[in-house]
Write a structure and sequence with these properties.
The structure is a single chain. The chain has six helices and 13 strands. By secondary structure, it is of the alpha/beta class. The protein has two domains: 42 residues, Phosphorylase Kinase, domain 1 (2-Layer Sandwich); 167 residues, 3-Layer(aba) Sandwich (Rossmann fold), CATH 3.40.50.150. Strands 6, 7, 8, 9, 10, 11, 12 and 13 form an eight-stranded mixed beta sheet that branches. The chain has a five-stranded antiparallel beta sheet with strand order 1-2-3-5-4. The protein is globular, with a radius of gyration of 17 Å.
């Protein structure tokens, strides 16, 4: 295995082509990814072609402001590919992983069962009462949902749970199939600013996921 270097993200290394997350559950492969040893520690191959967050981290070469003990609200967990790597990153934290599809949720449950820090939840991210009695505050919200009002959903959750920061995977064609993606991006950035939140420079991840931008949003400037 060639020389790896750390990213500004806990428990993640890169060789410039792929990422590798330190396996929270040694010996466990979540979705068939390769397990590799490096300096006596087991890592999981994290392919940017299969994960938008991996694409963001690789293309930006900067962190996503996730911390090891964060409480994360993850909207759009799907079958658990990316959320399992977030589990490696926030190894001392917790992730509330929300998925709307019953069929997909069953796969999510099976895939993340060995991971003590993931709490799978079935529900609709648009439901403002979804986490009532379960979660009062989170450190981070991650939003990867195909909804026309995905920006509003992301911002509402970030403010409702007083998150320090969050990651919005902007699916431009889900918002407006006819508009130019840059116009959709501009409108999203305006919505973020209108809520008195601060967006880092958006990262175009179209090399891996067409018409998608990753936007790191913070409550305060750096």
């Amino acid at each position: 295995m060639e020389k790896l270097r750390p990213l500004d993200c806990p428990n993640v290394l890169t060789d410039g082509t792929y990422l590798y997350s330190k396996n929270l559950v040694p010996g466990n492969s979540v979705y068939g990814e390769k397990l590799q040893m490096y300096d006596g520690v087991e890592y999981r191959l994290w392919d940017p072609a299969r994960s938008k967050l991996a694409a963001y981290l690789l293309l930006s070469e900067k962190g996503c402001d996730l911390r090891q003990n964060d409480v994360v609200l993850y909207l759009g967990a799907s079958t658990g590919t990316t959320v399992s790597h977030v589990s490696d990153i926030v190894s001392d934290g917790r992730i509330f992983a929300v998925e709307i599809s019953k069929r997909t949720f069953k796969k999510l449950m099976a895939n993340v069962a060995p991971r003590r820090n993931i709490i799978p939840m079935i529900g609709d991210a648009r439901d403002e009462n979804l986490m009532e009695g379960i979660l009062q505050k989170a450190d981070y919200v991650y939003c990867d949902i195909a909804q026309p009002d995905q920006v509003r959903i992301f911002l509402n959750n970030m403010l409702q749970y007083k998150c320090r920061s969050g990651m919005l995977m902007l699916k431009c064609r889900s918002i407006d199939v006819a508009s130019d993606p840059t116009s959709v991006l501009s409108e999203a950035l305006k919505e973020i600013k209108d809520k008195n939140l601060y967006a880092d420079a958006p990262v175009d991840i179209s090399r891996y996921e067409k018409d998608h931008y990753a936007i790191l949003v913070r409550r305060t400037t750096r």
